[in-house]
């Protein structure tokens, strides 16, 4: 199996070098390039065709949010995973609206980061637990203020008890591996449950599942 192709985007050269060294010891990952700002990221993506881009958000020339938006428009198959120092609401919501599939802080553990990269490559949403909680809370606040209709009609099929357990853990930001450990089931079984949950809720990814579940009163 070929290693995942990774592009590192951060204006701090020392951080990029450290991250490249950390990831280079993994046979399942290959750092194919680096960029110091959003414009360089767009050029490097076009040249190197990475599968996952680890994107800082606050950079000179062109910031990560706008770079993510442009990258997703020009290379929709490339997954962007925000990796930044800050977790304020403007950064979080800006990155997710721009098309990032995940949002992690730079103090994340090496194992968690590697898991997140693989999850992002599969198209799964990966959120820092504190970020996931705030995203759901913000959606709840907007729902109370604007009283919008649910995103979709309530699912015809009811979620099973196990699927509800998976959904609650998913909404907290847990990865498939962490859900499997918490429920003491195989990771492959978790993946099947997640697929079923997304299908029953009529959504495409884990972030939308968490928001939809809140709108439908399932959490």
Automatic annotation (TrEMBL):
Chain ranges of the Response regulatory domain: 5-121
SUPFAM superfamilies: C-terminal effector domain of the bipartite response regulators, CheY-like
PROSITE patterns noted in UniProt: HTH_LUXR_1, HTH_LUXR_2, RESPONSE_REGULATORY
The protein, known as: Response regulator
Superkingdom of the organism of origin: Bacteria
4-aspartylphosphate carried by residues: 56
Domain HTH luxR-type residue range list: 152-217
InterPro entries per the UniProt record, alphabetical: CheY-like_superfamily (IPR011006), NreC/VraR/RcsB-like_REC (IPR058245), Sig_transdc_resp-reg_C-effctor (IPR016032), Sig_transdc_resp-reg_receiver (IPR001789), Tscrpt_reg_LuxR_C (IPR000792), WalR-like (IPR039420)
Keywords: DNA-binding, Phosphoprotein, Transcription, Transcription regulation
Lineage, top ranks: Bacteria, Thermotogati, Deinococcota, Deinococci, Deinococcales
């Amino acid at each position: 199996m070929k290693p995942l192709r990774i592009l590192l985007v951060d204006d701090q050269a020392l951080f990029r070098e450290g991250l490249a060294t950390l990831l280079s010891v993994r046979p399942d990952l290959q750092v194919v390039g680096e960029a110091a700002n959003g414009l360089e990221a767009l050029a490097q993506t076009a040249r190197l065709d990475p599968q996952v881009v680890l994107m800082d958000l606050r950079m000179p020339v062109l910031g990560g949010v706008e770079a993510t938006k442009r990258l997703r428009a020009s290379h929709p198959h490339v997954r962007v995973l925000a990796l930044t120092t800050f977790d304020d609401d403007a950064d979080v919501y800006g990155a997710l609206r721009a098309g990032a599939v995940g949002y992690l802080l730079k103090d994340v553990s090496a194992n968690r980061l590697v898991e997140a990269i693989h999850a992002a490559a599969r198209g799964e949403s990966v959120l820092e637990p504190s970020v996931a909680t705030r995203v759901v809370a913000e959606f709840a606040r907007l729902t109370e203020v604007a009283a919008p209709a649910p995103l979709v009609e309530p699912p015809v099929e009811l979620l099973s008890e196990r699927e509800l357990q998976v959904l609650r853990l998913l909404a907290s930001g847990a990865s498939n591996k962490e859900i499997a450990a918490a429920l003491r089931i195989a990771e492959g079984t978790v993946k099947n449950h997640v697929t079923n949950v997304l299908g029953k809720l009529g959504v495409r990814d884990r972030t939308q599942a968490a928001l939809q579940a809140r709108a439908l009163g399932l959490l």
